[in-house]
Specification:
The protein is an all-alpha fold. The chain has 10 helices and no strands. Helix 6 packs across helix 10. Residues 111-119 have low confidence and may be disordered.
């Protein structure tokens, strides 16, 4: 894999390292009382969600996994940027995030206003938006998604963004030690047995349920849909950017 994305601007790199350390502490902190209470409420809400919604999410995530690792449809037309300073990469990434937050919010508002059926349809649509964002983000940071191993990395980033606090330390170690993982992966795509896909689906579903379930409430759909999608994309953007910054600066 090309080491071209490495940055030579030491002053900015030090700033990034400090920023990453703050982010990691927040990412890995143990769940507090509010988080634990929210989880209990979320579980109760989750039990009341129609099975139809769970079926849609499960089927969508399974299809997503297959298409991301083995397919080429998400690979963007944008080039992979080489020979660029990290600061410029970050600026481009921020602009990309602004663009996709607006797309996600518009999608949520439109489907939320359409009642239950369209609100359910928003789940797979939002996943597609998220994956397109991550693929473009990879190219901004100098990693080509034509390599299936980089597509596999995206799935770990996706999983980290929507996992529970208990699961995050384990996933973060995979991200942190990705260069080692790369050396152990075959050159051609195979079945990624190292990922627990059932847990992947469950964690993602649980992470989005609390916000997205409100979208199904009559009269609130459009407003909540826009708010939920904007926030979920923002969460993914922060984690995605920092995972790539971590690779470029060579760890913490």
């Amino acid at each position: 894999m090309s080491k071209d994305p490495k940055n030579d601007d030491h002053t900015y790199e030090e700033h990034v390292r400090a920023d990453l350390n703050r982010w990691i502490r927040k990412l890995l902190q143990k769940p507090g009382f509010l988080e634990r209470t929210s989880k209990v409420i979320q579980t109760k809400v989750n039990d009341k969600i129609p099975e139809k919604v769970h079926t849609v999410i499960t089927a969508t995530v399974k299809g997503l996994v297959k298409s991301v690792v083995f397919g080429l449809e998400y690979i963007p037309n944008s080039p992979t940027f080489y020979g660029m300073q990290l600061q410029e990469r970050d600026q481009r990434a921020q602009r990309l995030l602004v663009k996709y937050r607006k797309i996600a919010a518009a999608e949520g508002a439109g489907t939320g206003a359409g009642g239950f059926t369209l609100a359910v349809a928003d789940f797979p649509a939002l996943i597609v938006i998220k994956m397109k964002f991550l693929f473009e983000l990879a190219h901004i940071y100098g990693f080509s998604t034509k390599d299936y191993r980089e597509r596999l990395f995206l799935l770990y980033v996706f999983q980290l963004a929507f996992s529970s606090q208990e699961k995050r330390p384990e996933l973060f170690q995979v991200i942190l030690n990705w260069e080692k993982t790369l050396s152990e992966l075959p050159a051609e795509a195979g079945d990624p047995q190292q990922i627990d896909w059932e847990q992947f689906q469950r964690e993602y579903r649980d992470a989005i349920d609390f916000r997205k379930t409100l979208q199904l409430i009559p009269g609130l759909g459009a407003v909540v849909g826009a708010w939920a999608n904007y926030g979920l994309l923002d969460d993914l953007g922060t984690i995605g950017m920092n995972c790539y910054r971590l690779r470029i600066v060579g760890g913490i």
